[in-house]
Amino acid sequence: MTLIRRYWLSALAIIFSGIVFLVPFSFIILMAFKDRTQAQLLDFSWPQGMHLWSNIVEVVTTRNWMLLTAFINSTILTVASVTLLVIFAAMVGFVLQRRKTRFNGLIEFLILAGLMIPPAVVPTIWLLQGIGLFGKLHGMVLVEIAYSLPFSILLYRAFIATIPREMDEAAIIDGARPLDVFFRIVLPLLWPVTVTNIVVQSVAIFNDFTNPLYYLPGNANATVQLTLYNFQSQFQTSYNLLFTNIALITIPPLIVFLFFNRQIVAGMTAGAVKG
Amino acid sequence: MTAIMQTGAPTAAKAVPVLKRRSPYPAWFFLPAAIIYGLLFLLPTLASLYFSLTRWTLFNSTFIGLDNFAQFMREPFLVKGLINTVIYAVITSGLKVVLGLALAVLLTSQIAARGYLRSVVFFPVLVSTVGVGITFTVLMHPTQGMINEGLALLGIDGPGWLVDPNLALFSVALVDVWKGVGLATVIYIAGIVAIPQDYYEAARIDGSTIWQSFLYVTLPLCRPATVTVIILSFIGGLRTFDLIWAMTRGGPGFASDTIASVIYKQYQAGFYGLSTAGNVVLFVLIAVLVIPLTMWLNRREGHE
Questions:
Q1: Considering Cα of B79, then B81, then B82, then B86, what sign does the dihedral take?
Q2: Closest Cβ–Cβ partner in B135, B189, B282 for A27
Q3: Does any domain span residue B31?
Q4: Within a domain: residue B4?
Q5: What residue in A sits closest to B124 (Cα-Cα)?
């Protein structure tokens, strides 16, 4: 009885998930294979003829290879932000967890504020213009770091609490300086949570649309998410190209998902058990 | 051994005064993060409090008091944005809690293809929001869209999801749930997996049904997960911008405008003071709604 019910429940879940979750993704892929006239119909049909390659070529070369530039920009932005973010957040998490001072309360308040408060957009633009970083990739890197720090610090602090203090005390007694203790003893031990941090934050920053929209205007600086936005109006009548673009920019998250699924879930569910 | 002891002892003795002078956990470790965070997040946030009271061109600002905020309360399309934001946040976080919990219970039970189902439900979380938005805009096309064509096969006359002013906000909220429910699900799965099996066994021995086990064991014990899901999706819902911008740009008319899209529109129009006031309104709205909500959720937990 329960076996039969379980069987039906499984079948139902698989069919339902197929309709709700797989059909939209198949739709994207099918559209990327179609030619312009067939894509225009917007229906869920098998492509007539194989047009994927010509679609890719057309999307990539449009507007002076904008998509290629965008991929390079997004890669630089993601790699640079995440590298610095990981180091700075680990440093804060480490000292915050180890050293109890009267400032800890204030720092924790600022971290929670950072998780909650929406960034003040125009004043940030005004400030970036003031220091000459508006519309510059390195300015964008700093902004992404600033916005991602609170979450990364929380991840690190929780993990550092599980590393025994004796570990760093032993190193100190052996004469290690603070920097050595951190970079040679503690940081290597933090590897699991560092992987989680890298994976979660790279996906977030790679997929970020709002912040580059505000702080990184101009075609030369476009990130991959902005190409979609820019093409949305230009490709109004060529949905095949628009969906080819969507398919292309979904590849990096897909790769991350295939290889680091476990770490992503670990990072995103941190706090679910303890609260 | 003795050699180590001999060299070890004096260093340790020397290290004591060193420890007093310089902590092994130096405060300057905060510095890089503090400078970036302070300069690019805290400073603009504080500046927004002043600039929201001005008419502002980025080069000079005129102090106009609370005029911007008065405008926010007066102009119908701005008020609409305010109300929409709250509706959107309530709908998305409510649906994510219910569906996320249901899916998590299903995916921790003994059903076939669990791994596949978990992956399929979670993957949309990682996909570009704008990409999802554009895809669903096409799927929700009133006459040609796949959703309405599918409904037509069942004999249902599908609505104009994104073109009907009464429906547009809800349609976008549904897509938000589609994209975000995977996160709620994995959070709930983590919470449910952490519940010791003994409780379920004890409940079963006492003769509880599956439904009772869910109600009296699963639900109270995965409360931390519920709190996390509610807070995360509520804040996310209040701040949402990219999905709305990709799907409706706040339209038709102002029907699906939220504060975040109003902020962007006012920024584009060059009303920097008004845009910044929008930021402050959003900030206050989050503080006013989320802080009591968090306290309420956590206090109940303390009682149990």
A1: positive
A2: B135
A3: no
A4: no
A5: A21
Q: Before B252, cis peptide (omega within 30)?
A: yes
- Would you call A209 and B301 a contact, using CB atoms and an 8 Å cutoff? no
Write the CB contacts of B180 (distance below 8 Å, at least 6 apart in sequence).
Answer: B92, B96, B124, B125, B233, B236
For residue B63, report the phi and psi dihedrals to the nearest 5 degrees: -75, 125
CB of A156 within 8 Å of a chain B CB? The answer is no
pLDDT band of residue B89 (cuts 50, 70, 90) is very high
B174-224 pLDDT tens trace: 999 999 999 999 999 988 988 888 998 999 899 888 888 888 888 888 888
What distance in Å separates residue A30's CA from the closest CA in chain B? 12
Residue B225 to residue A243, Cβ atoms within 8 A: no
Domain count, chain B: 1
**Which ranges of chain A have pLDDT less than 70?**
1, 234-237, 271-275
- Two tokens at B15? 């290290």
ipTM, two decimals, is 0.88
Task: Give the confidence band of B9 by pLDDT, cuts at 50, 70, 90.
Answer: very low
**Cβ contact (<8 Å) for A207 and B23?**
no
Does B39 reach chain A within 8 Å, measured CB to CB?
yes
| Residues of chain B found within 8 Å of residue A94, distances taken between Cβ atoms | 25, 29
Chain B contact present for A109, CB below 8 A: no
Q: Map tokens 């519920």 to a residue.
A: B226
Task: Report yes or no on B203 lying in a domain.
Answer: yes
The tokens describing A184, both together, are 């040679």
For residue A5, what is the nearest residue in chain B, using CA coordinates? B111
Instruction: Give the pLDDT confidence of B13-27 residue by residue, as tens digits.
Output: 444 444 455 677 888
Q: Name the pTM for this structure.
A: 0.87
The verdict on residue B59 lying in a domain is: no
Domain range spanning residue B270? Answer: 78-303
Query: Would you give the DSSP letter of residue B66?
Result: T
Kindly report the nearest CA distance between residue B267 and chain A, in angstroms. Answer: 7
Domains and CATH numbers, chain A: 66-268 (1.10.3720.10)
- CATH number, position B257: 1.10.3720.10
Residue B93: which region, alpha, beta or left (left: phi > 0; alpha: psi -120 to 50)?
alpha
